[in-house]
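User: Fold this; tokens only.

Assistant: Input:
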Amino acid sequence: MAPTRQSVKVGDQITPLSRTVTQEQIGAYAEASGDVNPIHVNEEFARMVGLPGTIAHGMLNMAILTEAVSRWAGGSDNVASIRCRFSKPLLPGDTITCTGRVVEVDEAAGTATLEAGATSDRGDTVLSNGRATVRLSD
């Protein structure tokens, strides 16, 4: 059920969403997006440039964050905007956990603003400074 103008309060939390990202998923994202940068698909190249191995696309991580916000908002149609900073790489096999908290409710506009972000099971903040604007139902 979508959050409403009357039900949403500052401090409300979204249900955390966790996903384990695999190299197969990273490869599929590379193919679908056309971003076949070797840091995502070639472990030897990624190590040559100083990474611990291949890394997930920042936009793949952000898509998982968007899914978490969308579930809380009652569907993707209710997500007006979302942005974040890509802080640390997510490696194949890592689990990303996305969270969010309402920081503002604009009843007149019918929107809520959330702080959002994500951490890995290694303890790294992989997405920071996230903000999402969600449309609220009446």
